[in-house]
Amino acid sequence: MCNKLGVVLLFFCFAHLLVAQNQPVKQFLGLKSMKGASFSIMAKEVETGKVLYAYDKDKEVIPASVLKLATSAAALELLGEDYRFATVLEYDGKIANGVLEGNLYIKGSGDPTLGSSHFAEPRSSYTPDKNTFIPQWLEAVAKAGIKKITGAVIADESIFDTEGISMKWVHEDMGSYYGAGSYGISVFDNLYALYLTTGTPGSKPKITETVPAMPSITFHNYIKVASVKTDSCFIVGAPFSNERYLYGALPANKERYLIRGDIPDPALFLAQYVHNSLRVEGVVIEGTPTCYRILSEENRWTNNKRKTLATTYSPTLREIVRIVNERSHNLFTDAILKTLGLQYKPKPGEVISSTGKGIEVVKSHWKEKGLDVSSLWMYDASGLAMADKVTASFICDLLCYMATKSKASDAYIASLPKAGLEGSVANILKGSALQGKALLKSGGMSRVRAYAGYITKDNKQYAIAIFVNNFSGESRLLIKNLEKLLLSLF
Fold this sequence. Notes:
This protein has helices at residues 2-20, 23-29, 68-79, 134-143, 266-280, 292-297, 317-327, 330-341, 354-368, 392-404, 409-414, 475-489, and strands spanning 38-45, 51-55, 86-91, 94-96, 99-101, 104-107, 148-149, 153-156, 191-197, 206-211, 218-221, 224-226, 234-236, 243-247, 249-251, 257-262, 284-285, 290-291, 307-313, 438-445, 448-457, 460-469. The chain is of the alpha/beta class.
């Protein structure tokens, strides 16, 4: 028995030292910025499962956006790569002599891509007033002969709950462009552009406009102009709140400087937007635009029978997942998670959020596929929550499964950007021997850097996951050292 135990211990010691004895890894671990930091790596051959490198592969680490790999893979498996969201323009009551005696409804299915700039052509010239679904809806109303609405434009976002963001997100994420909440109705990436004019250092910038117009928001401007090249601004505010607080610094002497924030209540905003668009077309609307959340809180929500005027479909899930992993789109990922949650059947008396349901579905799926989910701690899908945890071992097993067993293998692998060429890793490994040969999802937040994906070497495909938590010093210097490490190992 003792001899067997000794063999087992020797095996695990060898596996742990497989990378530690590698000179490039020893050099990386010896960096000043790695003092007190956590480092985890695993690389294995996809076809055989043979481990090429491993160090602290079972250590639970903060994954940042690498967590998106788990949700996007589960979505392709469970929903199918051809899945599309549908947003439906409906009405109740009756239409007679050009008058809709009833309400106009926008029925959401959780589509995060409605009016998204990521699917506009050309994206560089996108504005919310062009290249959108709005003309289709205006045409449908006109075709129905509606010139007057006695009721109101109502957004029905009831498919998800009102917890737009994870309870584990930190203060600085709330209100930011990357921290937009996901709801039953989303529109224009749930973002607005805020334009400011700056003067001399020490002065306060002037807010000039928002696009689209956000007249309901009150901005409390605490930004200072400074002698800097880039901004360090935060737009801070809670979901459904029309109070937004601006902090940080902006470069001096800029005529039109752009920062972005999240639309506080996308469903209500869309109802107002459609209301205003119809009025411009000459349609008279007697009621005030509103949404399910407000009406249900006031006990005024009704489930009247409705008829369809128009249906707007999203791009395919394959296309959406490509944006998720190439552009690291938080809103898209969290909306996909909540959509998966629609498959969850709550236990008797169980109270669980739309996000919580999605997490249960994702974890259950990967457990059924034979992956060890005991180290998968999810509090969102996007990886913004610092409480999220994974291991390099789990991510590598996930990557190997998707490459060898999944029916959506091609779509999944194609969703990962080519290092040095595309998306969030366009500047990683640029000009190196791994440019275009490494397909990597990046993850980054304060004192966290992570990469995971596939690397081709000697006509073999390897799954790799590498995480650094709690490093010190500049992020750009750490990234350079991670590049050196990857080039040395591969």
